[in-house]
Protein 1
Amino acid sequence: MKYGLGILLNALVMVSMTAQVNNRVIVKSLDMSLINEVLISNEGEVEYKQWDKSYGRVLISVSTEGLNSSELKNLILANRYEMKQVEIDGNLHLSFPNLDQELLEGIKEHIQIKCFVPEHVSASSSVETDKTIEELLF
């Protein structure tokens, strides 16, 4: 009986570990005093809010299933959520090129980007601008 109970408890622990959800928020602050427009290139969920500060702030919320917290931390350290920025004529283009890389099968990832911009800055998002930003970087 004790042996069967031990196996059952082990199985429950394994199931709870594999269904583990981890969340992290990565914060980036940007000088936007000379910026007129912000354009974010990303296929995911992007939300813009204006605020009364002279700088901008980008919050990248990452939620994963199938990774433990140290594995998610390693993805962050490996620059998976790195933000590239290019400024041209007062327009700031932001992209996340490393998000195009596939994760292992069975891992679910949800990314939400929230961008706070000064009141004088307009903002929009587009998936099509990735090529333009890559061209601008090289």
Protein 2
Amino acid sequence: MRRRNLFTALLSVALLPGDALAYGLIGSSETQMAISAIQNAGRRARDVKAIKTVPSVGVVSLNVPHSNNCTDFSQYQVFAQRNAAGVSALRNALSANPATRQALERHGIPLGMIVGARISSKGSLRLYVLNPPAAN
């Protein structure tokens, strides 16, 4: 049986100005970026401090079930758990910065779901979100 690569399609959101958010399917390169964003969450926390305005916000949902025998989204939970300190630092930085906190509130993005981020040179955010695991 052939093993499928972890880097598969997932649901993403395009960066849009203002209050708009839109979802769309993306490919394996975005999956690599998502994993990198989770692994580098602590480094992004330092970058958040410098953000003065947030011109746009994009959200990548990592809770999308994968098709075509692909690895399921629980793998992202493993990455987030392994980097819990970095994820926590990122959430704290997003909450402490007034510009990012207001952007999250405006778009209704709960801090507790954010596990990674990419930040553009102009302050636009691409946030990687993951629903917490269901309680047993």
Protein 3
Amino acid sequence: MIIQCGRTTRRVVDEARDWAEQAATLIATRTGCTRPEAMRSFSRESRVSPGTLENLSRERLKRLAVEDYVGIQQAFIAEINRAIGALEAELERARARGLCSGAFWAELSEAQAAITYAKGLIRASEESSKFSNPSS
């Protein structure tokens, strides 16, 4: 099945491409691998063929299968959750070192608020995809 879902196909393809690109950047940063290696890792996690992701990144796809869109979305959310986990661990280390007082308190509070906000966005996205996913 090809995605139509009331949105233009181009917008859906662009959204999936952005997710894949951002996820590859996060993977490369987290693991220290090259961008092509990160994209292969994302391909395995999203269960989308490397060729489809390559065509997506080079803007050669005009349509996207529902399964590929959902796979990219879920793998992107999983990668963001990993990044959030790493940030939370870093905040915890900062608290343990006593950096939560004085000059750093405002910055750490902002970071915690950003993490909480990001988690809320992810939850909202997951909830909305349950209702709009034509393959479920």
Protein 4
Amino acid sequence: MRVVDYQRATIVPDITGTIATTLTFDGGGGTTGSITLTAQRRGQYVTLQIPAVTGTSGTGSTALVSNTALAAAFRPLVNQFGVLVSIVNNNAAVAASGAVQIGTGGIVTLLRDSASTTFTNTSVCGTAQAQSVTYFVG
């Protein structure tokens, strides 16, 4: 299927891609096993599928950061943020929503919450289930 972008008067084809990556805790800590992120671009919007992923956090870790960038077609012109509803900290579900940032360089960052609260040191942290987020690429 093709979507017409009337602002630019061009036809923008649908694009699907996957990226195999690991995620590393910032501030020290472990790396997750390999995961596959799936991206579907439709016009100027991308839906990113994030699988359930956990690892052992380190001291002061506030985020899990992808070690491989998304392809250029899936990168936004400005940083984009979304909500993650299923976050794990200290091997237990967190009541508050987490956040995901998709950076202009294609790096995906998973946060415990929008306030950058640290994960519990040396505990299992991440996402409990697969989640999707849709963002504007411009």
